[in-house]
Amino acid sequence: MTKAVFFDIDGTILAGNEGLNSLTDKVKSAIHKLKRAGHYIFIATGRPYAFLQTELLNFGFDGFVMSNGAAVMVDGKIIFKQALEPSAVKKICDYAVSENIEYMLEGYPQVYYRREFKAVENFLRKIKVDGSNFVRDFDIYEVETLKIECVTSRTDVENVDKVYKKILATEGFSGWSDPFRFKSLEVSAENVTKADGIVKALNHIGVDIKNSYAFGDGYNDTEMLERVGTGIAMGTASDDLKRRAKFVVPSVFDDGVAVGIEKYILGA
Question: What is the DSSP letter of 137?
């Protein structure tokens, strides 16, 4: 029986904020074993294409669910893309600037952010991604041509929760914020989630959702862990996410993904 397995990146197979920017040998071996057994392997991340390290792009994944499901790639081709309404993008950016909050605009394959956005630069430096698809000089009022999938914020400003709540309350948006932990915000078109992107990938490759698995640790993994056949939460996930998952494995620093693959997928 062919299975499809989806992996979140940050906090699941990598932890750039804490210095883990490459897959461990055990995790590499376990994921390759899935591939050799004839199963599909995918990344399902909040990151856009431009934030995928060369290691991940060259690893042999069958595809990528990116920007929390706003873009889906299978076998090197984009099979789905949901852009935000340009007027909404302008509105978010203007409001963010008025509150001294930095933002990034995620498209494919480029992302756009201002040269003066130091919190963004610091974040990108930590996760060690190639900057060839970064565009720092652009006109926000020509955003119609950019086809933005997601607007994100990475800020060092204190007490931004009220600002994020106001943005997320705007009609036509979906997304999440975790300002107390990462001071971040991710906004996509309404009803766009990793779970929706996974369903599109599964339909494309012809695998039933009951034969799908997903590993995740964060708030934006909630829908995918609930909707796939078997949701697997990392040890560092919140208690709420763990309750929604079928299984819980050790943390990213303890090769939790490798443990889960051997015990719950290959060993099932």
Answer: -
